[in-house]
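JOB MANIFEST
job_type = single_chain_structure
chain_count = 1
residues = 135
[input]
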Amino acid sequence: MQVPRSEPSSPPGVRVLIVEDDEDSRDMLSELVTMLGYDPLGAANAAEALHHMQTSRPDVALIDIGLPEVDGCEVARRLRASTGGDAIRLVALTGYSDGQTRETAAAAGFDDFVVKPVLPETLDALLRRSRPSGN
C-alpha cells in the first residue's frame, strides 16, 4: 500500500499525540504521522498523555479507547478538562465499530471515530481537517 504524502504546504509544527499502549502500534502510527508531514508525540498511558498536553500542546490526539487502567474515553475527558483541552481535536481509535462504542466515544468528547487498523488515506484526511485555521 502506498502512503499518501502531504503536500508541501503542510504546516510545520502540527503536533499529533498518539496515545496507544501497544508499543508496536504506537511506533507504526508515529512513522505514518511523520510520513504525512506532521510531528508525532507518543504516550503509552493517561499520565503520559496529560503530560504532553501540558508541555507540548498537541493539535490532535489519536487515542486508543482500549487502554489499560485508564481507558481512552477517560483520557479524552481529562484532556478536554485540561487547559487548552477545548482546542485539541480528539480521534478515538478502536477495533469496535458498533453504535454503542461510537456513542460512548462521542459522549467522552471525541471529535472523530476511526476503526483499526487505520488506513493511511483515512489518517491523512483526518489530519488535514485538523490543521489550525489559517493553514
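[summary]
The longest helix spans residues 23-35.
Residues 54 and 83 are 7 Å apart (CA to CA).
exit_status = 0
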